[in-house]
Design goal:
Blueprint: E1 4-8, H1 20-23, H2 37-41, E2 53-63, E3 68-77, E4 87-93, E5 97-107, E6 113-115, E7 121-128, E8 131-139, E9 148-157, E10 165-168, E11 175-183, E12 186-187, E13 190-191, E14 193-197, E15 206-208, E16 211-219
Parallel strand pairs: 2-11
Antiparallel strand pairs: 1-10, 1-14, 2-3, 3-9, 4-8, 5-6, 5-9, 7-8, 11-16, 12-13, 15-16
Length: 233
């Protein structure tokens, strides 16, 4: 099963955005949090037995008005294989965007905190002509079986441009709780809107106040073999 949500723009515009935008970051709801007793005791996921890790919370927010995206994850490590999720890569276009405001930490099984030292590295994923796809990489400290790793970051669009954004709501590991949000760009009859497919019955983005919201729980891991694009015959 593949679940995707696409935010499509009718117009590509340049506009001014002040540094104050980040002080109003809607991702405040996704600040670090202490594990619950249930999360600390968790060793498996009923709807995905055998998973090496599980996403406890996943928050994605796109602000088209101020031209940035925020992502936040909490992941419980359930096995030795799951420790690989302590190595994080954030892929972006080098000339179009930049990754910043990275915060991260590891909550050890005994509840003590291993803070992230702030070191990041860039590596080229794809280079075609003058276009480079870059991965901003960093590693969470002291990741153990039973740890909960937690991190967040912003991706700012350079030149304050707007372009199509795609939310992929399914990962190779299960997700317990997912929230997405979109603050649309609206000007003179042009505005951001959603197109989507594959959502659970009765689920769709809804407009509340000044932004779209969607919450989904207990999302099973993706099956890559079912999500491949096939050529028409």
């Amino acid at each position: 099963m593949l679940i995707r949500l696409r935010c499509t723009l009718l117009l590509l515009l340049l506009f001014f955005v002040s540094a104050e935008a980040y002080s109003r970051n809607e991702a405040a709801a996704a600040e670090f949090r202490d594990p619950t007793a249930e999360e600390r005791a968790m060793t498996s996921v009923p709807f995905a037995p055998g998973a090496s890790a599980v996403v406890l919370n996943w928050y994605q927010f796109v602000n088209d008005r101020d031209s940035y995206r925020t992502e936040y994850l909490r992941i419980k490590i359930l096995s030795e294989q799951g420790k690989k999720y302590g190595d994080v890569e954030v892929v972006h276009l080098a000339l179009s965007s930049d990754v910043n405001h990275i915060k991260a930490r590891t909550v050890r099984p005994d509840g003590t905190i291993a803070p992230f030292d702030g070191r990041t590295f860039d590596k080229v994923v794809v280079k075609v002509g003058g276009v480079r796809l870059i991965a901003k990489t960093f590693t969470l400290p002291d990741v153990q079986v039973g740890s909960i790793i937690e991190y967040r970051y912003d991706i700012a669009n350079l030149g304050n441009t707007l372009f199509n954004s795609e939310f992929t709501l399914q990962r190779e590991i299960p997700v317990v709780h997912l929230e997405i949000g979109l603050h649309p760009y609206v000007l003179g009859g042009y505005e951001t809107f959603f197109s989507f497919h594959g959502l659970p019955p009765g689920k769709k983005p809804e407009f509340h106040g000044d932004k779209y919201d969607l919450t989904i729980e207990n999302i099973p891991p993706s099956r890559r073999s079912r999500s491949r694009r096939r050529r028409p015959r």
